[in-house]
Amino acid sequence: MQGFVIQSFRESPIFKWAMIVCFAASLALIAAALWLWGAVEVRGEFGEVFGLTFFGFFWIAILSLLFPWLGLSIEQDIGASRNPAALVALFGAVLALATIYAAGSLGEGPSYWNNIFSAALGTAAFFALWLVLELGGRMSASIAEERDLGSGIRFCGFVLAVALILGRAVAGDWHSESATVRDFIRDGWPAAALGLFAICVEIVLRPSRTRPFPGWRGCGLLPAVVYLSSASAWVFHLGRWEGMPK
User: Fold this and answer.
1) Are 206 and 154 in contact (CB under 8 A)?
2) Strand partners, 38
C-alpha cells in the first residue's frame, strides 16, 4: 500500500509546483495573520502588510538554505530526487518558519526590529530542536535515504507543532529583550519536551531491518496528530496573547 502511495506521488505533477504552492501558502499565512492580528499600525493596512509579508518571503527563503545542513534539501530531495517523504517534510518545515515569523510580528511594539528579535528567537529555538531530533533520531536518513513516507509525515507534524508552541511564545506586546526571553522560556518550554518525546518516537518507529516499510498511517499520521494535538492544547491553555485584538 505504501509503495502504491509513493508511486502515485512520483507520477503526480505536484512536484513541479510543490515549492511554489508551499511558499504561496506560507506568504498567505503571514499576510492573513498580520491583516487580522498585527499591530494597530499594521492591521488592515495593505502597504504595511505587503511590506512585512515581502520581507517574510526573504526570511523564509534565506533560512531554507540551512535545511541541507540538517540533512534535507529542497533542490536535491524534491527537485532532483522527487522524494515524496521529503516533499511532505519540507512543506511542513517551510510552513513552520512562516508561522514563527508571523507570530513574532503579532503584538504592539515601538520598532519593527522588535518583531525581528522575536521571530529570530523563535526561529533559533526551532532549528535547535530540529538539530536535536536529527542527532537523536536520525530523521534525515529515514526521509532522504529510506524515503519513508511515514517519517516525512511524522516530521511534518513535529515541526508544525513546535512552530505553534514557539510562535505562541514569541507573540504579544513588546516590553524589552529580557522580558521577551523570559516569556519565551515560560511559554515555550513544552517544545523542548516535545522534542525529547519525538526522539523516543523516532527510535521506535523509524525504518529498521525488522520493519523496513513502516505503515504511513500508524507510524506517520498518528504521531503527527499526537504532536499537533499536544501543541494545540498548550496554545489553547495559554489563551490570548498580550495585545491580541478582540
Assistant:
1) no
2) 106
